[in-house]
Amino acid sequence: MKHFLTLLETPADEIIEMLDLADQLKQETKQGIFRPYLKNKTIGLIFRKSSTRTRVSFEVGAVQLGAYPLHLDAATMQIGRGEPVQDTARVLSRYLDGIMIRTYEQEEVEGLAKFGSIPVINGLTDFAHPCQVMADLQTIRERKGKLAGLKMAFIGDGNNMCNSLMVGALKTGMAFSCACPQGYKPDPKVLQFAEAYDCFECVDDPMTAVKDADVILTDVWASMGEEGEAEKRRQVFEGTYQVNAALMAEAHPDAMVLHCLPAHRGEEITEEVFEAHADEIFEEAENRLHAQKAIMLTLMGD
Ligand code: CP
Ligand code: NVA
């Protein structure tokens, strides 16, 4: 019985196997080949937060695999009125073959996995966004032909994206540098994991982090659930934590730029850099579909 809760507990060889499967499924999709690998299976997609990409790519991906996806808005479920996760997990396990959940606390995802008897996929928590990072790694490998030996840099909030990118990059042999302001560093548990790697650094200065980077990523200054801190965060991040032309000049001349989206142009990234790398960014968004099909198939396939 396997779950996909964070990349911390996903072995490196399984990450690579799922990326290979994602590439295969992408090729099949491009050729119009849709094999019903998950025929007659059902997956529940629980959302406590907004979503465009995650919802649509999971629903379409499940249908393309022959499965039936149920969109479950937590606000209209009993879990949204306080029904315990232990009970929700045991009930849903009797109807469904898998659960994807997007929520606030990582503990809720872990709880579904602990008390249920079907695979659980983390579709974003405040702690991690592992599905997004699988798509990011797929996009980098497609465009650069490899992962190991490249350098990834992340600029901005040490949030769910930064946490998951750090683990995904280091486990696949990439060097990783992040520049995050004091008070907005990545999660201590993830830092502890990363500090065992020589090719890891977490600094304050973005110019230092992007030096010779092959891939640069950023994310919003205030994530979902942090709307009330937006102004305070703006004052901390503005003027320094932005992917712009001056920052790009420090990176490798062929550096890619990725963004999980939605992006705030003029905040964490300039319009100019965003549009110059739009092909990469929208390929990254497309790869959510292929990467998540690989995750569903790995967890829910016979
Ligand atoms: N990147 C991402 O997860 O997008 P959504 O919030 O639209 O799902
Ligand atoms: N860090 C962002 C990612 C959105 C896909 C958030 O959690 O809102």
From TrEMBL:
GO cellular component terms, alphabetically, are: cytoplasm
- List positions binding carbamoyl phosphate: 51-54, 78, 102, 129-132, 260-261, 288
Query: Which residues take part in binding L-ornithine?
Result: 160, 219, 223-224
Q: Which reaction does it catalyse?
A: carbamoyl phosphate + L-ornithine = L-citrulline + phosphate + H(+)
Q: Where does this protein act, in terms of pathway?
A: Amino-acid biosynthesis; L-arginine biosynthesis; L-arginine from L-ornithine and carbamoyl phosphate: step 1/3
Give the keywords, sorted. Answer: Cytoplasm, Transferase
A biological process from GO: citrulline biosynthetic process
- Protein family per UniProt: Belongs to the aspartate/ornithine carbamoyltransferase superfamily. OTCase family.
Protein name as it appears in the record:
Ornithine carbamoyltransferase
